[in-house]
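Hi P.,

Sorry for the delay on this. The queue was packed all week, but I finally got your sequence through. Input first:
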Amino acid sequence: MKIYENDSNLILEDVSDFDIEDILECGQCFHFLKIADHEYHICAKGRFLHIKQECGSVNKVIFYNTTISDYEEVWKDYFDMNTDYRHIKKMILSIDDRLETAIRAKAGIRILHQDFFETLISFIISQNKQIPHIKQLVHTLSLRYGTRVDGYDEYLFPAVDKLNDVSVDELKECKVGFRAPYIRDAVSRVYNGDIKEDELKCMSVQDAREKLMTIHGVGEKVSNCVLLFGLGRMDVFPVDVWMKRIMEFMYFGKDTKKEIIESFACEKYGEYAGYAQQYLFHYGRENGIGK
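Then the structure:
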């Protein structure tokens, strides 16, 4: 891969295993705006990024108004650029080559290293919601309580101390519905230090999951999503309605409890469970597998 600066932009050429559309649209994050095909505005890590991918003979990714220093400090880690996805795909296929179609179709997916607090609140919001509505609610919270990006009609996700001043009634005004007290409890618990990102990262997956589930309204699915997308625990396998259908279609052939599916997948895929889940989820949802 070649990296260089050009007219205040950072250019990455010959980027492998990277498709910005699949990365953002696969259900792992909600704070972005599609500008055109393979071109997006992203708010993440307290930063704003305008990014575009040109897919051709040279797979080129343009980070607008970005320096090499910005990339090294924020976006390199955010896009998980140090991870060898070719190796991961090879290992998953060695476990089960039935994932080959999904992996080939969604070969450019990467699991983002997202901000823990934003991920926690976003997946609390996600309960019983479709992705477009989740994005709208995240945008509304950011619009009301976040910081505006200079020169753009975009807003960063609000910091925990800012949201800590927001009441349940004010949250309900943001149209989050029954999730308002869940968000309020999560914000309070993070703000007062009862829920700490560093401590969760040091716990076993089971202990971290149980700790997250002490937050009002956080169950297995939300806690697993936070573990995977906000804490980098790649050995978890979130199961929602779509994943349940996909796994039943692929492995069980009948109605199966989510707990059984999750246990089966974690044992089968091991340290690659989270990666396998993303390939299967995005491919299966787009193609209506098990619908």
